[in-house]
Write a structure and sequence with these properties.
alpha+beta, transcription regulation, two-stranded antiparallel ribbon, transcription coactivator activity, 13% strand, transcription, Mediator of RNA polymerase II transcription subunit 27, 7 helices, nucleus, 4-stranded antiparallel beta sheet, extended
Length: 295
């Protein structure tokens, strides 16, 4: 048993070395001729370097083949427990259960791994800050978290935004009480699904009016995918834990400028269409439209 584990360890290390050297080959090809190759005969130096890397990869591949050949094949099929009975189902719908079960296990393992990494990162970063004035060392009163607010406060904020922009149609539902999901429509141009976490915007998806109004799928149109990416950037730009209501109003004021998405030309090149797309970026200060390549 120990011998089999040692051989398996050797095979895995051989694969690791092979992958590392293959990555070096792709990096060399991607970088091309470099300054350290000099001016005289730099093409020949680059070719010699690439040949050496490929020879190393060839030797590593031979080591992997030898290591795999030395492994002892399993005596029989692996025991899968009661899940083996899933393959005996006669209905086509139930035959696919085993594949879904395997995917769910993989997904659970990834969640466990990412959760452990996130926990380590949060432990090393303290979020407790002591605010001091110039004249005293007394701590300020702890402020209420922007996530833990009453539904009435959030509703008043949304109502104020609705009054601030009469040409924006806003509808609200609360699938995750008390945090609302707001659908804001800019006339016939587009609609957005905005998820709130207390007084803070947590997620934004922009879609066409004909698409489904769900928060979990992206638009199938490239133009609205670009607008969604820009909304995420603006959401981070306007984020303000000290003044969350102002941050939301500033974001909505910026978002309102997209009512000219298909009619306003680019401020830099003056064209309406570039690379088959309109000006999908709005300046965060001036709200002027720009193409992605022109901003």
């Amino acid at each position: 048993m120990e011998r089999d584990l040692a051989q398996l360890n050797v095979a895995l290390n051989s694969v690791k070395v092979l992958r590392s050297n293959v990555r070096s080959v792709f990096e060399s090809v991607g970088n091309g001729l470099r300054a350290d190759h000099g001016d005289d005969g730099k093409e020949n130096k680059y070719i010699i370097e690439l040949q050496e890397l490929l020879t190393t990869v060839n030797n590593n591949l031979r080591d992997v083949e030898n290591a795999v050949a030395s492994l002892t094949p399993p005596p029989g099929a692996f025991s899968l427990g009661n899940t083996t009975y899933l393959a005996q189902e006669t209905t086509q719908e139930r035959q696919a259960l085993y594949g879904q079960l395997v995917n769910s296990y993989k997904w659970t393992d990834k969640i466990r791994e990412y959760s452990a990494l996130a926990g380590n990162i949060l432990q090393t970063n303290s979020f407790n800050k002591t605010y001091k004035t110039l004249s005293t060392t007394k701590r300020r009163k702890t402020q209420t978290s922007n996530h833990n607010v009453s539904p009435e406060v959030i509703e008043n904020l949304i109502t104020g935004i609705d009054r601030l922009f009469p040409d924006v149609t806003i509808t609200t539902n609360r699938p995750f009480v008390p945090n609302p999901v707001v659908q804001a429509s800019l006339g016939r141009v587009l609609k957005s699904i905005i998820g709130f976490k207390g007084l803070m915007i947590e997620w934004v998806v922009v879609k066409a009016h004909a698409e489904a109004s769900d928060q979990w799928s992206d638009s199938r149109y490239k133009v609205f995918q670009k607008v969604t990416e820009n909304c995420h950037a603006a959401m981070c730009h306007f984020h303000s834990p000290m003044m969350p209501d102002l941050a939301v109003r500033s974001f909505m004021h910026w978002f309102h400028s997209y009512n000219t998405l298909f009619s306003a030309p680019c401020k830099r090149c003056g064209n309406h269409i570039h690379n088959n797309l309109p000006a999908t970026w709005r300046d965060l200060r001036t709200l002027e439209p720009y193409h992605e390549e022109c901003k």
